[in-house]
Write a structure and sequence with these properties.
By secondary structure, the chain is of the alpha+beta class. It folds into 3 domains: about 190 residues, Histidine kinase-like ATPase, C-terminal domain (Heat Shock Protein 90, 2-Layer Sandwich), CATH 3.30.565; about 130 residues, Ribosomal Protein S5, domain 2, CATH 3.30.230.10; about 220 residues, MutL, C-terminal domain, regulatory subdomain (Ribosomal Protein S8, Chain: A, domain 1), CATH 3.30.1370. About 30% of the residues lie in helices and about 25% in strands. The chain contains 19 helices and 27 strands. It has an 8-stranded mixed β-sheet with strand order 7-6-5-8-3-2-9-10, with helices on one face. The protein binds adenosine-5'-diphosphate (ADP) and magnesium ion.
Amino acid sequence: MPIAILTEDVIARIAAGEVVERPASVVKELIENSLDAGATAIHVEIAASGRQLIRISDNGSGILRDEIELAFKRHATSKLRDTDDLERLVTLGFRGEALASISAVSQTTIVTRHRSEDMGISLKMNGGTIQHNKAIGAPAGTVVTIENLFFNTPARLKFLKSDNTEKRHIQTVVTRYAMAYPDVRFVLKQDGREQFRSSGGGGLADVVAKVFGIDSFKRMVEVESEEVGRGGYPQINVYGFVSEPALNRNDRSRIIIFINGRAIQDTALTHAITQAYHAMIKSGRYPMGVLLLTMPTEFVDVNVHPTKAEVRFKDSNQVFVAVQRAVRQAILSFAEAPINHDEWSDTGFTNDYIEYNRQLNMPMQSPDFGRLRDYGNYDVADDNADLDYIPEGAGSPDKPRTLPLLRVVGQVGAVYIIAEGPAGMYLIDQNAAHERVLYEQLSENIKANELKIFSPDESLSVMLSPEDATLLTKLGDEFASLGFEIEVFGPNTFIVRSMPHIIAGQAINQTLPQILSLVQYTNHRQQDMITAIASVGAVKSGQILETDEMQALIRQLERCPSPYESPSGRTTLVHMSREHLAKEFGRS
Ligand code: ADP
Ligand code: MG
């Protein structure tokens, strides 16, 4: 369809926000445009990690002469007309924002010729203003050149990381699209050197071998499964490659998932893949793999986040199960893998596994699912130190005891801790108790002016809803006093440079909205905010804990001023006296 400006009501329905964060985001948006234009060859040329030059050339449809200026207007798109179209999107783009946003913060030149026209056009813009628009001879297709990115937005320039980091981000974007579109030829050149090339010959295996290296690829197995739709559920196809158990890493950055040709980040699905290796890989290690999932467009909502990196499924369990089954089937072919058969038969990963988690009331989308820890970004450095849930220095002995010395006996349902004390048995709600402990810790640190702050190696950007963004702005000082360093980045988008230590292990793009929603209806006092942070930072129900972790938690609870209640007023522990137990068993 022709390019046109979206109507107000459609605009209102589209997830809004800044999409141009760094050179790699420009590369991503432009590659998506080339793919949407049906290109079979896409060349990416970069100079100075994208700060100086980003050039994407494609052999796609090109843009009509009459439409070129419109293409650079905000909300101008040829891919969407009305809100119903959102349900059946087959294109990667649909917001009509990228060209407008990119050209506003750079010097942009586009040379394009539509297949149906004899002459091409060259359009040059500076910070969003047109410099020239002239006819020019050009091959069919489009070349977009971005020079001096962010020359007029110093805040974003400042946000950029080292050259190597930015280059790595660009490489990640290009190689991911090359894997998702094996029949398109991708070439990436950085500073004149060819860094990556895919053949466009159509095989995922070829591309995966190039991206992961042939040695790794030899240790991967093909995943192929088709879930036939039943009970109105979608048919989900899973195709890809996953590593043998012995080939694993200490982070999740090599678990790559595509839904209908879109690279997405989904904590639950990543977890589904990792869980399929249960009892084959040590905890804290992760497999590698690439999975291309396809399902009917109406079963997945891509209009969740402006960068389109997150999706929402109509039925996430269905997808979770399909992925887990497919991966598990594939890795079972590694006969030599040391499989712990007891664990396999007990906690198989079919529906039983899901049911089990449901009973624990564990949200599938939670970043704290199982022992999962995430910094919110998939490409943070490989050397993420595993943070312990229950910090050290547990139960500082200089504080008065409020509970007797307790000995941990075990954990029930991954929700309660059983402990024994001189006066009988204690059942402790791990989540409520940890909330109490973190609340005390943070309050004390603030009082003593010894706030422990965590600054991630890479500042993280967080997109908020307009309401949350307003609240965050209003509570700016309060957040700062709790150790958050947050800067405005773009519309509803913020950069988080630091946060209180107790939420360091969490995905900030999820925790910040959670904190805001928890304080929303309070009086916004500091203690309300501390309660919210403690609640987000606390170990979740459903989390299996090691004995020493439980013991550390109890040690700290034993010296909390009010150990019987969480800061939000929930019961933390139930005591069954020796007398009570004796009576129950008719021993008295
Ligand atoms: P969106 O992709 O969401 O539609 P963009 O701002 O990225 O928004 O692009 C605006 C429009 O410009 C697209 O809808 C498309 O019609 C056209 N366009 C952009 N890049 C290309 C390209 N490489 N080849 C052909 N058409 C393009
Ligand atoms: Mg686009």
